[in-house]
Amino acid sequence: MKRMFFLIFFVLLCCSVAGGSEYDRLKALEAEGIQNADLYYNLGVTYWQTGQSGMANLYFLKALNINSAHKPAKENLNYVIALSEDRDLYPEQLFLVRVFFEVYDFLNLNRMAILTLVLLILSAISLSWLLHYDPHKERGLPSLVFGICLVLFLTSAVFLGVKSYRQAFNSKAVVLAPEAELRAEPEAQAKRVALVHEALILVVEKAEAEWSLVRTPDGKSGWIPNQKIGKVLDKNPSGKA
Amino acid sequence: MLLPLMLIAASVTAKVNKRELTLAERLAYTIEIISDKAIRISEPSPPEIELFSFVNMSSSTVSSTNLSGGRLQSKHIKTYTYYYLPQKEGSTTIPSQDIQLGNKVYSTQAIQIKVVKSTSQAPAQRSPALQPGFDFEDPDLPWSANRIAGSTFILAFPQRQKVYKGQPAVVSYYLYTDQMVRSFNLEDEKDFPGYGKSVYEQPTMLEYETVTHQGKRFQRALIKRLVLLPNKTGELQAPLVQGMARIYEFGYMNQTVSSNAAWLEVLPLPDENVPENYSGAVGSFEVSETISDTSISLGEAITYSLRIAGRGNFNQFGHPQFPPSKAQVSDPLAIDRLHAGVEGSRTLYYTIIPSEKGTYTLPSLSFSWYDTEQERYRSFQSQEQEIEVKAANVMSYFSSILDKGNPQTIRPMLSRDAYPDYHSVLSKFWYWLIVFLTIAGSGFSGYLAWHKAQKRKNPTWYAQRNADKALKKYLSEASMAVKNLSMDFYTLAENGLMQYLSEKYGVSKRLSTSEKIAQLQEKNIPAELLEDTRKFIEICNRQRFSPEKKEASLLWEDYQLLRSIVSAFSKRGGKR
Fold first, then answer.
1. Whole-angstrom Cα distance, residue B226 to residue B211?
2. Which residue of B11, B35, B204, B290 shows the fewest CB atoms closer than 10 Å?
């Protein structure tokens, strides 16, 4: 019986050490400054396995910030949101809006950049075709092709700019504390605006040294202590595993 | 005691069972209404009596009709009786009560009451003293003597006397009574070692049924059902349930009751034919499986679900695991639809992500349990499933748009050997080089198109412009040669002049000098200018092959000649 006990204990110890070493390896890579969507995703899964849904969501968001088309991160983020206490705060999206955002997310920054480049080249070719077109012929077709290419290129360029800006200045944050209160003013005694729970995704509208003005998915704004949230662009969010 | 007030068509009287009573006795205050017409009034509220607390009330109606002297006479009697308990000694007065019958108000008389100390001869609380002539001894009343002497108790009934270790055993607890138990407040049950338990059923109100127990009729009501999960073999005593019964006996009284001891015999599970993967499940189960898809794209996930339904120790066995394969398989997510943790179904969801395209064989999953009905170990072995894994495509990314319920569980970690640092394409040099070349190419194309358009719209102007440019270029080179006193001046000057004239007047460059001059004559160019041109070309030809170096002054003269010729041609404008 004792042998069995020690055997089980040894196996459990090995498992925990193995799990810990994987987490340590991933954290070490992150500490080296490596930015990689799969790295952040795996850290998110590790945090989820240790019961830290806030940190899990934060790292899934970090993965999606680098690669918005990271499907596993997106699915896990949706999964954690569905299990979170504040899941009802997220507005229901219309089907067409969802389709738009799916396409928008599929075109991550690199894909969007390549698409923009291709559309630029196509626009240049179609422009050249239009300029060198036989003047005695009707120019409808080359004009149409050039117009379409130009509109697509400009649209793509705008989205590329937006994506690039959002990646560089991502204002999303996640509640890390089990629960936190949003205040009307950046003071602990100020009037309570809302009670939020771990793993809720917030948008930081204004950041100060100790407090941040945040907006919840259902549109409520309030101040929250910085120590209770983790920002997507923070290098060292406080987590334990 | 009878205090008549008014005897018109109706009378209202008030009476008490005793005017002097002890603390152990109860006061019955009765209002009796007699009328020759049907009495339709609302129930009078119980009067507040100092030194007494109100306990309960009852009412009765008696109607009779007599034929007297050829007249039909009716009599209706309505009685309201209020019961009080004395709180302390002293004297008090029951205040007068107003009763409205039709349009008339009748008032009762106030009654003096005295409460004295209890004496040894005083009747017990459970047997209230009854006033002679008063009808408290009516055997139909709930507080009659035979009911006061009734009994209330709890009996425990195990569903089975013999169960296997781990097999859920339901124990039902019934309240038996031949009294008027209006409510029952359960207290924590007393537990014994050897089992885990959960509440299977606990009714919110007492629903009586009539049963015979030991030859006597009782009313019984279920008060609780517990599920016991034995974790050791041998004799097992079920928990003792206890609580407070609120019994109505001439007022309410509380009585603590406890269940009897009930025993079960717990049998060990057989040691023979134990399946290898047996993880402790005991019960009666039906197992089924479903798979979300059999054809997916690489990177997509399939959900395999294993449903275990029936009755058993759902919370005491491990979940089956898939053997290793070429896929990432998540830990199962259990969704329970269980009653008391022992009855219902548990569905285990596994998220499976094949790691390469082709045909992926989902390995067999097995689940074993000890079937308490068939008294043997049983196993469920899932069929191996072939999953077609196609190459990933763009559309596979959007497969989740229509499937809002996906995923059922967290996706597992990705196995990566390395994590290369992320660099945006926008930070790459080649990207911006291509952008620059594309924009530059467009500009160049536009430039060419502009030239083409100008040539097409105004060919003369275009030709002259080109000629001027060429001349400028060659003259520039020629003037440099003059400054350097180089004999290359003549070569450059002749080439530049011929190039200029060719482009301006469309004279072929392949012709000889005399042929070019002949062609220029056809362009209406003055003979003097042509002569100067011919002379300059001859000088050029002569000096090109001359071994002697010319003096600077002569070189400068020839240069001035060239300028005068070019100037004369330029002033003429372009004509073809």
1. 22
2. B204
The answer to whether residue A110 neighbours chain B at the CB level (below 8 Å) is yes
Domain end point (choices B66, B97, B130) = B130
Query: Which of B400, B419, B452 faces A34 most closely, judged by CB atoms?
Result: B419
pLDDT digits over B144-157, tens only?
Answer: 334 445 788 999 99
pLDDT (average), residues B377-398: 82
CA B490, CA A84: separation in Å to the nearest integer?
91
Tokens of B134: 């008063």
The answer to whether residue A153 neighbours chain B at the CB level (below 8 Å) is: no
- Cα torsion through A94, A99, A102, A107, rounded to 10: -140
Residues of chain B numbered 451-480 and touching chain A (CB < 8 Å): 452-453, 456
CA distance B246 to B242: 13
How are the residues of chain A apportioned to helix, strand and coil, as percentages rounded to the nearest 5?
60, 15, 25
* Domain membership of residue B104 as a residue range: 10-130
Compute CA B444 distance to the chain's CA centroid, rounded to the nearest angstrom. Answer: 59
Would residue B439 count as lying in a domain? no
Which chain B residues in 388-407 lie under 8 Å from chain A, judged by CB atoms?
394, 397-398, 400-401, 406-407
Environment class of residue B306 by beta-carbon count within 10 Å: exposed (0-12), middle (13-18) or buried (19+)? buried
Contact B401 A135 (CB under 8 A): no
Q: Output the domain CATH number for residue B71.
A: 2.60.40
- If one compares A12 and B273, the residue with the highest pLDDT of the two is B273
Going from the C-alpha of B552 to that of each of B83, B540, B541, B558, B561, the distances in angstroms are: 151, 15, 18, 10, 14
% of chain B with per-residue pLDDT over 90: 18
Q: Is the distance from CB of A203 to CB of A214 less than 8 angstroms? A: yes
pLDDT average, residue stretch B428-434: 94
